[in-house]
Design goal:
- With about 650 residues, the chain is α+β, with helices and mostly antiparallel strands.
- Among the domains are: about 110 residues, no CATH class; about 140 residues, no CATH class; about 190 residues.
- The chain contains 16 helices and 22 strands.
- The protein has an eight-stranded mixed beta sheet, sandwiched between helices. Strands 1, 4, 8, 9 and 10 form a five-stranded antiparallel beta sheet that branches. Strands 3-2-7-6-5 form a five-stranded antiparallel beta sheet, with helices on one face.
- Helix 1 crosses helix 4 and helix 2 crosses helix 4.
- The chain is globular, with a radius of gyration of 30 Å.
- The termini are far apart.
- The C terminus is likely disordered.
């Protein structure tokens, strides 16, 4: 079957991955039906053989000479090395073998070489960074001078645009080694041990003699995976390997015209998980030529603030609407609670370990299981938050008709100076995952995602670029703070939420600098490297001037009498008598009369308008304390085409006040 996809004009190929599970299989030699535990055991035997060979090969080649040889991209004869890691290792003569007395075919060796080759290739970047830091070791590692920063960036390949946080983290790692051994390490291979090889089967390194996959012609969500698996943990001959056919059901996210590739198999929790890669055509995204863009600004409780801007033919940039916000205070509060719980469990485990009492071994085992469960909950919460925020952002771009999303680049941001709790929450925000999912979803519909420099996006006015004055809230114009921004320019006078002004600056900067968009060679993402003063002067949000109406609206007669409009969605009959409370109480609006209150987290104030913080007690997300679900904590501004939300969940403040009267 051909792996090439026919493309139309304006289309490109996109490779994505979707999870699936192998729930059963059939041994083609005996016709035996293999249950999920039996199938997982046989896959685990093959995984153990592959990981053992890959670990031995990786430990043998974990040095500077071999890593540089593979990174050079040419063999001893001067020929270019193949892109596949296993083929490149064979060209260099780096081989491995199974244990004595075990017989495997050549495709099993290929998978081991592929795993080891990918690990060796990935360490090259870290080796260059560590080598550059060691070559320009500063006099004071805690604080580099401007000249020392320029020297270390010049010593690292591509260090001009490397985030400062990466260099600082490597400096702290080397400082810890220096404190322990009283000398600097020679390279990254002395600083770090050889990594552990993941227990997985990379079937993409095989051919039809080891594994095949065929999609059903009648049911697009069905496929059949055939692969050879051992019948014993130490196969002594090829007879101990048999073909197993596994039916698979794909998720509906895989298009019907997609080309399937052989998956990667993992044995997790007694079940076989498969990561299927597929390639399908998508609209091609462009880095320039955009007229409508969505600007996205990062926050903490207000995780994302986004809005659209339009570039006119005369060069003016105007904002399309007031924008929206994705508020995740409850989710982040729950994440913070789980983090503290994990820290307490780790501290207790360390204390029991230091005591070295055999009677405490059972408690250590119980704590280990609890730590694992808390870690899974944190991972699941971060996963759901990343997908929800990315989906909301792409929906906002679709609703506004934007062809590009300009995202603030905060990779180099380090949390500090904001208090212990605030710094920890900032450092644990899943910005990288959200950006990755955002690019994944935007690529399906041809929307480009471009990162822009974050310099002065929240500091300068979006209309006149004058430095803003930040206050605590609009009702406290003289009290210093950071949430509310005021423009001191009397000719402008803009004021608004700090994040709302930031997305305007980001969208305007992206539209003004779109001709400087490049593709990063290391991450294959679109970026705007730096701010150009001439282009930044044009990155202004122009205020629309209302046109004067020429129609004479003078009053020519008496005003028509109008009936009083009833309250919206109010019942026309009184509430039934309840067992507790006053009889004949007025209806409660759209909520059933029998309900005592609105759902958890519905009363929490998360409106777009900023008010001063409550003074009676510190703000606390009720749902996070009571353990409510994820969606009661993630409050997103809906796109313009969405149906209005239910009154029981998102009533406006004025409407809630009317209901209470």
């Amino acid at each position: 079957m051909s792996r090439k996809i026919p493309l139309a004009e304006g289309e490109t190929c996109r490779t994505a991955c979707a999870p699936a599970a192998l729930r059963a299989g059939v041994d083609e030699n005996t016709g035996e039906l293999l249950s999920a535990p039996v199938l997982a055991r046989r896959v685990g035997w093959a995984t153990d053989l592959v990981s053992h060979m890959a670990s031995s090969l990786l430990s043998e080649r974990w040095n500077t000479t071999d890593v540089d040889t593979l990174a050079a991209g040419v063999d001893t004869g001067g020929r270019k090395l193949p892109s596949n890691a296993w083929m490149a290792l064979r060209r260099l003569g780096w081989t491995t073998a199974p244990p004595q007395g075990v017989r495997v075919n050549d495709r099993i060796v290929r998978m081991a070489q592929e795993l080891a080759g990918r690990a060796v290739r990935s360490v090259k970047w870290r080796a260059d960074v560590v080598a550059g830091v060691l070559a320009t070791w500063p006099a004071d590692p805690t604080k580099r001078t401007e000249a020392e920063w320029e020297a270390v960036r010049a010593a690292i390949p591509g260090g001009e645009y490397l985030p400062s946080s990466v260099i600082r983290s490597r400096t702290r790692q080397i400082t810890s080694y220096l404190r322990k051994h009283e000398r600097l390490p020679a390279d990254v291979f002395e600083l770090e041990p050889s990594p552990s090889v993941p227990r997985m089967l990379l079937l993409s390194a095989c051919d039809a003699q080891q594994a095949t996959i065929e999609r059903s012609a009648t049911e697009p969500t069905k496929a059949l995976l055939r692969l050879q698996l051992p019948t014993r943990p130490d196969p002594a001959s090829y007879r101990d390997w048999t073909w197993v056919a596994c039916p698979i059901t794909f998720p509906p996210t895989i298009p019907a015209n997609a080309v399937l590739h052989l998956p990667a198999l993992r044995n997790l929790g007694g079940k076989v998980r498969a990561d299927f890669a597929y390639t399908h055509p998508v609209p091609k995204a462009s880095g320039s030529g955009h007229t409508v863009a969505l600007g996205v600004d990062w926050g903490l409780n207000t995780l994302l603030s986004a809005g659209a801007a339009r570039l006119h033919h005369d060069g003016r940039i105007t904002a399309l609407g007031t924008g929206g916000q994705f508020r995740a205070a409850g989710v982040l509060a729950k994440q913070h609670r789980l983090r503290k719980q994990s820290e307490r469990l780790h501290a207790k485990t360390d204390q029991y370990t230091r005591l070295a009492d055999p009677a405490l071994e059972g408690k250590v085992a119980v704590l280990a299981k609890e730590i694992e469960q808390v870690s899974k909950r944190r991972s699941t919460l971060n996963h759901a938050l990343a997908w929800s925020a990315a989906r909301w952002t792409v929906d906002q771009a679709l609703a506004a008709g934007a062809t590009v999303i300009y995202l603030e680049d905060l990779r180099s941001m380090e949390a500090g100076g904001m208090g212990r709790t605030h710094n920890t929450r900032l450092s644990q925000t899943v910005r990288g995952r959200i950006a990755e999912r955002m690019r994944h979803l935007a690529a399906e519909i041809g929307i480009a995602v471009v990162t822009v420099p974050p310099t002065n996006t929240s500091k300068h006015c979006p209309n006149c670029l004058v430095p803003l004055r930040h206050r605590k809230a609009p009702d406290r114009p003289t009290e210093p703070g950071w949430k509310w921004a005021l423009c001191p320019n009397p000719e402008c006078g803009w004021q608004g939420d700090r994040d709302q002004g930031a997305w305007r600056r980001i969208a305007a900067r992206g539209l003004a600098h779109q001709t400087t968009t490049v593709v990063d060679t290391t991450s294959s993402t679109m970026v705007i490297r730096k701010v150009v003063d001439q282009l930044e002067a044009k990155a202004l949000i122009s205020t629309a001037i209302p046109k004067a109406s020429r129609k004479d609206r003078s009053k020519t007669g008496p005003t028509r009498p109008r009936t009083n409009r009833p309250a919206p969605r109010r019942r026309g009959i009184p509430s039934p008598t309840r067992s507790s409370g006053c009889a004949g109480q007025r209806p409660e609006g759209h909520a059933p009369p029998g309900r005592t209150g609105l759902p958890r987290a519905a009363h929490r104030h998360q409106g777009v308008r900023t008010i001063s913080a409550p003074t009676t007690r510190p703000h606390r997300a009720r749902g996070a304390a009571l353990g409510a679900g994820f969606h009661l904590h993630a409050h997103a501004t809906p796109p313009r085409w969405a149906d209005p939300p239910s009154d029981t969940i998102s009533l406006t403040e004025d409407h809630q006040a009317d209901q209470r009267r």
